[in-house]
Design a protein that fits this description.
The protein is mainly α and 178 residues long. The mean pLDDT is 91. Helix 2 runs parallel beside helix 8 and helix 7 runs parallel beside helix 10. It is built from ten helices and two strands, in the order ααααβαβααααα.
Length: 178
């Protein structure tokens, strides 16, 4: 019982500002294993587009998955990229120029050292934890805010998002929406 009281006393005595920095450190520590992930899924197609196209094209088409071209869609269906039941004229496109710019910068600055691309995603996750901690500290009781940011930080789903480079948009959206 004394250990629980000591832990709660420490929890209560730490300010939300210090707590959010501790959570940022936890976020980095928990996601560092993703540095060895390499490229996955959409990362390969995005790499090819970034290395082959000029920046304006990258900013507008990096997150275009189906452009409505039935001939191209049928070729992708035949190759097994799209499922057999995919609508060839469907359009699946997301306008994410800021995220596209971060990926473009990764390839320009870091090149093939993909672990640095992952480190960039780790940094965005840590920034999101910090911004969330700040926002929660302004709008909720400190005890509630600290618990919420801690639970957000240690949720295992963030490891998948950090480890998959094409998923970085989640962290940018979170940072800029708070």
């Amino acid at each position: 019982m004394t250990l629980i009281r000591a832990a709660f006393g420490l929890y209560a005595s730490v300010s939300i500002q210090h707590w959010r920095w501790l959570c940022c450190l936890l976020a980095v520590l928990f996601t560092l294993p993703t540095l060895g992930n390499g490229l996955q899924y959409d990362d390969y197609a995005q790499r090819d587009l970034i290395l082959e196209q000029p920046l304006p094209q990258v900013l507008t088409s990096l997150f275009v998955f189906m452009d409505g071209d039935p001939i191209k869609a049928q070729q992708l269906i035949d190759r097994g990229v799209y499922p057999w039941f995919a609508e060839p004229t469907a359009k699946v496109a997301f306008f994410r120029p800021v995220t596209a710019l971060t990926h473009w910068l990764d390839w320009q600055v870091f090149g093939v050292r993909v672990w640095l691309h992952h480190l960039h995603s780790v940094a965005w996750f840590a920034l999101l934890v910090s911004v969330l901690g700040h926002w929660l500290g302004r709008h909720f009781d400190p005890a509630v805010a600290k618990l919420a940011v801690l639970l957000f930080t240690v949720d295992e789903v963030h490891g998948v998002a950090v480890g998959w480079l094409a998923n970085r948009n989640i962290f940018l959206a979170g940072v800029f929406s708070l």
